Every structure is written in C-alpha cells, then in structure tokens.
Structure to design on (212 residues):
C-alpha cells in the first residue's frame, strides 16, 4: 500500500510541476516585432505596440539614413547610433538623447536613446513611439531620406496582447509582428517567475522527502 501511495504521489507531483511551469510560460511568452523607422518624418512615429509597466524591451537597429545635403550637393549619412555633437537644443525631437540617433518613448513618458541597441525595463505603460532625433521642430528633417530597420523583442506578463491601433496624432512606421514558436521563451523574465519556479521545486523536494 505504501509503495502504491508513493508512486501515485510522484505522478501527481510530476504532473503538478509540468502544469505549473507550462502555465507560467503561457503568461510570460515573448513577442518579437520588426519595424521600419523613417528619417524623414518630423514627429514621433507611433508603432501601435502597447507596453505594460515591467515589460522588458530589447532593441536592435541597423541601416543608414541621410541626414543632410550640403550646399554643394554632397550627402552625409549615419546609422541608428547617430553622430557626435550637441543635441540639447529644443529643436530636437528628444533633446540631449544623441544627435541624429534613434530614440524612443513610452506613452507620455521621458524619451530615451535607442541607438543601434538597447535593453530597458518599462517603468510606465503606454504606446511605444520611435523616431530620429533631428531638429524636427525647426524644419531639420526636410532633407532627410531613408529608414532604419528595428528589431524589438518584448517579454513580460502582457507581452502577448494584441497591438493597438496607432495613434492618429502621430505618423506610424511599418510594423510586422512575429510570435516565438518556443513556448518556453521568456520563462525567466521576471523575479516573480523565478520565485514561482523556486517555490514549486522546493515544494516538490519537501513532498518527496516526506513520502518518498
């Protein structure tokens, strides 16, 4: 009888652990986006992607855009990291965040520099906006051309929610969304998840020690 009870307990514990881990994976699943951010748009560009506070955002950007045409017709280009120089003027889209660099913001929150790559944890909720940090409020983007390709990976409890419609007050970059086929991606993205898994493991060891 004791052997049968021990075997039954092991099966129940194993099933409970599997269901608990799969359940947590479903809530922490990551989503990946590809976006195209224009250098010519003279405002923040709405992505239609809604971010929740606590989400982790991993950016990676590539490409080259033209940011000026000289009097002699010569052109200058830069990547998403921008160029050296002062960007504190109020004419810039995001003053102080890098001259001609790729920048972003969440909702009405503060702007941040993205550059060629950045990882942040969202402190507030809202729609994600991206743009080129040019003197857009003083006509500085009129001679710009080209766009950057941005890859964005979001992980967090709400990262699998559907994108919202872009704000009608901002231009929108082209956006494509892909879901990760791996159900375990994003498992250990939050401290709550780590505590949850640690609890399940500890409870399993405790039960096996008593009844095993």
């Amino acid at each position: 009888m004791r052997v049968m009870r021990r075997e039954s307990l092991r099966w129940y514990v194993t099933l409970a652990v599997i269901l608990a881990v799969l359940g947590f994976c479903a809530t922490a699943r990551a989503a990946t986006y590809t976006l195209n951010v224009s250098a010519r748009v003279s405002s923040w560009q709405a992505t239609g992607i809604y971010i929740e506070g606590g989400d982790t955002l991993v950016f990676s950007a590539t490409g080259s855009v033209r940011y000026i045409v000289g009097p002699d017709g010569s052109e200058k280009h830069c990547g998403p990291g921008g160029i050296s120089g002062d960007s504190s003027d109020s004419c810039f889209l995001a003053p102080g965040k890098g001259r001609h660099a790729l920048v972003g913001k969440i909702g009405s929150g503060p702007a941040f520099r993205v550059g060629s790559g950045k990882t942040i944890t969202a402190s507030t909720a809202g729609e994600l906006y991206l743009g080129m940090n040019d003197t857009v409020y003083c006509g500085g983007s009129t001679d710009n051309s080209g766009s950057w390709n941005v890859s964005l990976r979001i992980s967090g409890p709400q990262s699998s929610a559907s994108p919202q419609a872009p704000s009608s007050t901002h231009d929108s970059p082209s956006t494509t969304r892909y879901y990760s086929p791996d159900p375990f991606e994003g498992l250990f993205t939050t401290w709550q998840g780590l505590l949850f898994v640690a609890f399940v493991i500890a409870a399993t060891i405790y039960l096996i020690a008593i009844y095993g």
